[in-house]
Amino acid sequence: MDNHTPSPQYAIGAEREVIGALFNLGGDVDFVENIFTKITDPSFFSDGVTRQTYEVASELFKAGKIINESTLSDILFDQGSQDLYVSLTDIIDKTTGSYIEALMHVEAVVEAKNKRDALDRIKNGFSKIANSNGQFSSDLDTVIDDLTDFRRLSGRGDLFEFMTFSELGKLPNKEWLQFPIFGLNDTAMIFAESGAGKSFVLIDWCIQASTGTEWAGFKFARPLRVAYTTNEGQSGIRSRFYEAATVSEADLDILEDNLLIELSTPQLFSDELGKTTGDFIVELKAKLRGRELDVIAIDTVQNASAGADLSNADDWGIVHHNINKIKEAFNCNVFLSHHKNKNEGQYYGSAFIKANMDAMIELKTTLARSEIHFEKTKDEERPHSIQFAIERGNQSGYVVYGDVAAATVAKDGE
Predict the structure, then answer these.
(1) Which of 215, 233, 202, 214 is nearest to 334 (CA)?
(2) Cα 305 from chain centroid?
(3) pLDDT value at position 324?
(4) What are the backbone angles phi and psi of residue 187, rounded to the nearest 5°?
(5) Distance CA 332, CA 328 (A)
(6) Hey, what long-range contacts does 321-328 have (CB within 8 A, 24 or more apart)?
(7) Contact 358, 187 (CB under 8 A)
(8) Which residues does 336 contact at the CB level (< 8 Å), separation at least 6?
(9) Residue 332 in contact with residue 297, Cβ under 8 Å?
(10) Contact 23, 90 (CB under 8 A)
């Protein structure tokens, strides 16, 4: 590490936290796989005991065995390493994953020209995710990410990957999930005044995307696997989804396989309220059981950002960082719903919100008509606005588009 040896006291403490968490939570396959994906080389660990333990854990993982003290004892006793087993089980019993120790580890390990800025960043990050009792939560991936980042700062890898023009040409073209609105790994937002029907429109979009049909005349490339999360209108969620599925004659078997619904949202700004971004990622991965996910819909971003002032660029930056963290964890799109600023007629919040979106859809409503207006499409020409209306069904309202919506408005005006 550039002729720098980490302070044993701090390095060993932080590294053993990772080992302790690995064995204490070894029954969670997705969790364990996440660690082995992030730390592929045992030499990541500077301490010989933790490095050897990680190698043993890797053997258990590759063999498809649960990582715990029992399986650890089997393999170590087979190797005649009873003394090492006693030492390691003591480590596992005593390490609960103190973020304070991890922070001290970072201070001891990092040796880079930008060390001061790096430490300020990591201190801010740890202050937001630390638990009052100093124990590991499902945000362990954040610890590993940060430790890996600082290993890189210390010369253990490249932070940037520069490409030649010919290498750039080998990158794939943009994959469209719904041309010209949604591309792969995009972030999109639908925004409207309260009561304008944005949840109805978003729910209808989720139904059509899950079955791979079309929404408002725009076809999907294939059926998409969608996770919809909401903190709004929970008492009516069931009837809204069932009405939308019934009216569109959706294939219920496909919906069962492709649509997940969660009646709460991850908290994208503060960890103090629980249900953190890390919690969300770990539990959704467990629910998916290895299946891919295409879109996560969050209704609304305001409810998912409790405590944040979205008109403040710094607060929005934290929210946007966690949105990207979700996208990276699942290699998926994120579709947000958001409120309008009543005074200005635009979305509420910082100008950076629009800058960070790949697509923005505005619902414009007047007494005479309601339109879906494509405020922004990043890589293609914006489509023309489409008229829509909310009709009353047997269980709830549902959305109609285009000519059908125009006829509905005309009939209501008679």
Answers:
(1) 202
(2) 14
(3) 92
(4) -115, 125
(5) 7
(6) 322/266, 322/268, 322/269, 322/277, 323/187, 323/268, 325/277, 325/281, 326/266, 326/277, 326/280, 326/281, 326/296, 327/185, 327/187
(7) yes
(8) 187, 188, 189, 190, 297, 298, 300, 301, 323
(9) no
(10) no
Tens-place pLDDT, residues 189-223: 999 998 899 999 999 999 999 999 999 999 999 99
Q: First-to-last CA distance in the chain?
A: 78
Token pair for 18: 């990772």
User: Shortest CA distance to 413 belongs to which of 363, 369, 364, 365?
Assistant: 369
Neighbours of 376 (CB within 10 A): 15
Q: What angle do CA 373, 374, 377 make, to 5 degrees?
A: 175
Tokens 């008109």 label which residue? 311
Q: Which residue has the tokens 């630390």?
A: 130
Q: How far apart are CA 238 and CA 117, in angstroms?
A: 48
Residues 6+ apart with CB under 8 A from 204: 215, 244, 248, 398, 399
List beta partners, residue 370: 365
3-state DSSP helix/strand/coil % of the chain, to nearest 5? 50, 15, 35
β-sheet bridge partners, residue 295:
226, 333
pLDDT of residue 235: 75
Diameter over CA atoms, the chain: 89
pLDDT, tens digit (0-9, with 9 covering 90-100), for 311-362? 999 899 999 999 998 998 899 999 999 999 876 668 989 989 999 999 999 9
Residue type, 5: T
Name the residue among 69, 70, 75 with its Cα closest to residue 55: 75
State the DSSP string of 221-268.
SS---EEEEESSSGGGHHHHHHHHHHHTT--HHHHHHHEEEESS--BS
* Verdict on whether the full-model pTM lies above 0.90: no
* Omega of the bond leading into 180 within 30 degrees of 0 (cis): yes
Look-up: residue for tokens 């209501």? 412
The angle at the Cα of 335, spanning 218 to 371, to the nearest 5 degrees, equals 50
Q: What is the DSSP string of 328-382?
A: HHHT-EEEEEEEB-TTTSSBSS-HHHHHH-SEEEEEEE-SS-EEEEEEEESSSPP
Sort strands 226-230 and 182-183 into parallel, antiparallel or unpaired: unpaired
